[in-house]
Amino acid sequence: MRQLLAALAVLLAVTAMAGATPVRLKDLVEFDGVRPNELLGYGLVVGLDGTGDGLRNSPFTEEMMANVLERLGVNVTGEQFRPRNVAAVLVTASLPPFARAGSAIDVTVSAIGDATSLRGGTLVMTPLNAADGDIYAVAQGSIIAGGIVAEGEAARVTRGVPTSGIIPAGATVEREVAFALSDLTHIRLALRTPDFTTAARIEAAVNQTFERRAALMLDAGTVDLDISALGLRSPAHALSRIENILIEPETRARVVVDQRSGTIVMGEDVRISRVAVSQGNLTLTVEEAPLVVQPNPFAEGETVVVPRSQAAIRTEPGIGMAEVPGGTSLSEIVAGLNALGVAPNDMIDILKSIRAAGALHAEFIVR
């Protein structure tokens, strides 16, 4: 107990707080209108080595394959074909902002039937649609699948995910998203993590850089940028000027714990009020070892069972009663618990109890 209190006293005596690291403006905000668009398509993969869909279990694969062949002039109506080298897949891609017709983008291919692997397959020409239903890209090419499957008569081993893969630069943009950046007179900067202090710092930094009042904080997550007040040739020039401005972001005090892996992540602003902590486990053990007593040979008497019990109480290593002074940072608490050899799960339980006592001043997230 004395060693515990001494270790906590040493670890909690000094609080070392470092200032926030400056971050580029482009890493803190999203520019209004400058965003990707998600694309989705339904296609067919051919050329698989017997690892495709079982057509009896995936009739949609057979129907799609018949449609493809009929478009190529091959009539398969009424024919019975059961190949194992084709698979139905969903194709997804992200259309980046300002992508022009003819640009190439990456696509992800995922099996939706009972195919066991897409390795070595080729995606047949697949149109990719956006949320409005229009076609914006067309995908085709050889699939790179990272997983592998090995199986025998009575065993099977799978490494990775062989039923999903990518096609680098596998889709060609056919249609551009209509967005005229040059016509904008105002651009809103949307903070990825809304915070009033960070938004105010962005406003002050932009106005100081241009030496004029061009930025205005609207709320915790939005800063309005007046392009006409900057005196530049276009909004693109304005964004290129401001996106590398360094800002010190302000974040909320937050503690995130993952019970499955025992991971604890915390911010530097987390504080704990004065609180006493006690933690430990008691193990009660009772063992029965009865003793059989028999009379001597040729003596009168009877066999008697004499009960014999052993009981013990063992205290597992843990924390006794320790007092934590007010204003202590959580990082120092965790460092002290680590120095005492407290297990991660026990540490998480201690943090939960401190929060339940109202002494942990931070947002507590458990995953």
Account of the protein in words:
The protein is α+β, with helices and mostly antiparallel strands and 367 residues long. The protein folds into three domains: 2-15 and 254-287 and 316-366, no CATH class; 23-33 and 186-247, no CATH class; 37-173, no CATH class. 19% of the residues lie in helices and 37% in strands. It is built from six helices and 27 strands. It has helices at 2-11, 59-71, 196-210, 235-242, 330-339, 344-356, and strands at 23-24, 29-31, 37-46, 86-95, 104-111, 122-129, 135-142, 144-145, 148-151, 156-159, 164-173, 186-191, 215-219, 222-226, 246-247, 254-258, 263-266, 271-272, 275-279, 282-288, 291-293, 304-306, 309-315, 319-324, 328-329, 360-361, 363-366. Strand 4 (86-95) and strand 5 form a beta hairpin. The longest helix is centred in the middle third of the chain and has 15 residues, at 196-210. The protein is flat, with a radius of gyration of 34 Å. The relative contact order is 0.14.
Strand order of the largest sheet: 3-4-5-11-7-6
Helix content: 10-25%
Strand content: 35-45%
Helix/strand structural class: alpha+beta
Mean pLDDT: 78
Poorly predicted parts: 1-19
**What's the total count of β strands?**
27
Q: In this structure, how is the largest beta sheet organized?
A: 6 strands, antiparallel, barrel
Number of helices: 6
Q: How many structural units, i.e. domains?
A: 3
Determine the N-to-C terminus distance: 33 Å
Q: What Rg do the Cα atoms give? A: 34 Å
CA-based shape = flat
